[in-house]
C-alpha cells in the first residue's frame, strides 16, 4: 500500500509546532515568569499585543538596539516598542534629560518651564499644527481630536477605515470592536476613493470628521495612496467635515511626517510615540480656530484634563529627542535605510520566487504572506498566519526581535550591519522553509 505524503497544510502545522517547541525549550525562565504572571493577571497579560503562544518572552533589559531576555539570550531589537522606541534603549541624551528633570521635582502641580518649549518644537516641525495640547497616549490624542471635531462642526458622525487602529478603544481591524468608544462610526474601505467619497457625500450634513492613518500601522503597514488622501482632503473641505491625520506612527517617516512628504494639510493631527522621547506621550493639534475651543480663558471652553499631560519627564525627554537626536537629517537617513532594507527583502522574495513581500514606508515594514498588491486589509485576509509564526520563531532563533505579526521597526541605533544581519536571516528563512511557502 502506497503511503501518501503529508499535505502542505499538515507540514506547515508540524513546522510551526516544532518551532514553538524549540522556542519553549530555549526559554524556561520566560515560561516560569509567564506562569507567575498568570496568577495575578488575566492570561498573564496587561497589554494584548505582547501576548503570543506558547508564552511571551520576558525581557530583562535593553541597551541601544539590543535586548536580553530572562534566559540571557541577546537580540537585536527590530521592534523598538512598536515605534515608540525610536531612540533606542537608555539613549544617553534622553537619560541626561530625564535625570535633569528629576532633580527639580517630578509633579510640580502647575505650568512648568518645559511644556511650551516642546510645543514650539512640535509646531515648528509640523506646519499644519498652529496650536496643540498634550495627552498621555496616542489613544487619548485621537479621542480628544474626535471630541473637538464634533464640538466644532456640531455634527456627530466619524468616518474611519477598516483595518485602522487609532488606539485601544478605537480599533477597526474587523469592523466594530466591543471595547470601542460608542461614537457614531462609519467604516469605509481604505484606499477606495469612490467608496470614501460616497460615504462622505451621503452623510455630508452629519459628518464631523474623517480620521485616517496615512499608512495603516497595526493593519499591516499598508500605505495610503497620495490620491486617496488628496481625495479625502477635497471631500472634507467640500462638506465642512474636518480631516484628521493620525500620525502617531507615521510622523517619524519624514522631517514633517507623512503629511509633509505628500504636501497634504489636515485640519487636525494626532501624535505620540517617539515625540515624547520614548516616555508616555500623546498630542493633538491643528487649526488655531478649532483648537481655540480648548482656550480656558473663554467661559464656554471645552475641558481637557490629564494630571500628567505636561509631566516634566516626558517634556524634558521630548525636547532632547526632537532638538538633538531626531533632526530633519536623522529622519531622512533613518527612513532611507529602511527603504533600502525593504527593497533588499523584496528582492529576495522575487529572486526566490516565493509569495512573500514586505509592505511599508521608510523605517516601518511588515511581512505579508502574499505576492499580490495590497491596498487594504481585505487583500490579506486569506493569507496563512502560520507563515508569520514560522518567520517570528526563525528570527528569534537568529537573535532578531520582531513582532509576531511580522511588524519590523528601525530605531536610530540600527546600522547597515544590523540590516545585513536581518536580510541574511530572512534569506535563510526562505531557504529553510521553501517547500512550505507558496510560489509567487
Describe the structure.
By secondary structure, the protein is of the alpha/beta class. 39% of the residues lie in helices and 15% in strands. It is built from 13 helices and 16 strands. The chain has helices spanning 8-26, 28-38, 92-103, 115-125, 138-153, 193-202, 226-239, 257-262, 288-291, 312-325, 328-352, 385-397, 416-432, and strands at 59-63, 66-69, 74-77, 131-135, 157-161, 184-188, 207-212, 215-216, 222-223, 242-246, 268-272, 282-286, 357-361, 364-368, 400-401, 407-409. Strands 4-12-11-10-7-5-6 form a 7-stranded mixed beta sheet, sandwiched between helices. A 4-stranded mixed beta sheet has the order 1-2-3-15. Strands 13-14-16 form a 3-stranded antiparallel beta sheet, with helices on one face. Helix 6 (193-202) packs parallel to helix 7, helix 11 runs parallel beside helix 13 (416-432) and helix 12 (385-397) packs across helix 13. The longest helix is centred in the last third of the chain and has 25 residues, at 328-352. The radius of gyration is 22 Å and the shape is globular. The two termini are 35 Å apart. The model has no long low-confidence stretch (mean pLDDT 97).
Amino acid at each position: 500500500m502506497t503511503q501518501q505524503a503529508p499535505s502542505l497544510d499538515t507540514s506547515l502545522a508540524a513546522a510551526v509546532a516544532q518551532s514553538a517547541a524549540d522556542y519553549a525549550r530555549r526559554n524556561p525562565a520566560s515560561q516560569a515568569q509567564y506562569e507567575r504572571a498568570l496568577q495575578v493577571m488575566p492570561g498573564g497579560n496587561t497589554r494584548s499585543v505582547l501576548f503570543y503562544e506558547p508564552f511571551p518572552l520576558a525581557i530583562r533589559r535593553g541597551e541601544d538596539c539590543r535586548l536580553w531576555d530572562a534566559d540571557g539570550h541577546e537580540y537585536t531589537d527590530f521592534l523598538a516598542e512598536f515605534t515608540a522606541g525610536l531612540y533606542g534603549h537608555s539613549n544617553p541624551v534622553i537619560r541626561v534629560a530625564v535625570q535633569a528633570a528629576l532633580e527639580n521635582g517630578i509633579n510640580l502641580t502647575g505650568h512648568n518651564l518645559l511644556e511650551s518649549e516642546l510645543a514650539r518644537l512640535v509646531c515648528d516641525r509640523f506646519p499644519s499644527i498652529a496650536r496643540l495640547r498634550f495627552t498621555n497616549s496616542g489613544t487619548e490624542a485621537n479621542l480628544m481630536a474626535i471630541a473637538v471635531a464634533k464640538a466644532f462642526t456640531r455634527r456627530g458622525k466619524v468616518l474611519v477605515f477598516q483595518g485602522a487602529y487609532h488606539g485601544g478603544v478605537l480599533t477597526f481591524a474587523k469592523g466594530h470592536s466591543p471595547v470601542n468608544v460608542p461614537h457614531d462610526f462609519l467604516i469605509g474601505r481604505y484606499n477606495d476613493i469612490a467608496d470614501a467619497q460616497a460615504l462622505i457625500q451621503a452623510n455630508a450634513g452629519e459628518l464631523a470628521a474623517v480620521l485616517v492613518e496615512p499608512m495603516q500601522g497595526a493593519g499591516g503597514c499598508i500605505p495610503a495612496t497620495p490620491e486617496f488622501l488628496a481625495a479625502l482632503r477635497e471631500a472634507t473641505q467640500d462638506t465642512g467635515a474636518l480631516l484628521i491625520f493620525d500620525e502617531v506612527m507615521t510622523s517619524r517617516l519624514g522631517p514633517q511626517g507623512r503629511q509633509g512628504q505628500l504636501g497634504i494639510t489636515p485640519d487636525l493631527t494626532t501624535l505620540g510615540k517617539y515625540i515624547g522621547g520614548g516616555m508616555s506621550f500623546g498630542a493633538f493639534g491643528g487649526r488655531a480656530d478649532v483648537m481655540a475651543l480648548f482656550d480656558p480663558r473663554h467661559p464656554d471652553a471645552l475641558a481637557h484634563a490629564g494630571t500628567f499631560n505636561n509631566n516634566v519627564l516626558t517634556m524634558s525627554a521630548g525636547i532632547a529627542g526632537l532638538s538633538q537626536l531626531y533632526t530633519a537629517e536623522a529622519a531622512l537617513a533613518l527612513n532611507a535605510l529602511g527603504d533600502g532594507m525593504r527593497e533588499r527583502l523584496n528582492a529576495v522574495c522575487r529572486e526566490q520566487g516565493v509569495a512573500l513581500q514586505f509592505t511599508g514606508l521608510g523605517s516601518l515594514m511588515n511581512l505579508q504572506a502574499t505576492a499580490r498588491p495590497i491596498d487594504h486589509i481585505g487583500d490579506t485576509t486569506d493569507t496563512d498566519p502560520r507563515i508569520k509564526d514560522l518567520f517570528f520563531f526563525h528570527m528569534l532563533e537568529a537573535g532578531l526581535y520582531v513582532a509576531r505579526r511580522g511588524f519590523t521597526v528601525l530605531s536610530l541605533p540600527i546600522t547597515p550591519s544590523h540590516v545585513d544581519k536581518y536580510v541574511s536571516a530572512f534569506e535563510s528563512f526562505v531557504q529553510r522553509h521553501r517547500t512550505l511557502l507558496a510560489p509567487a
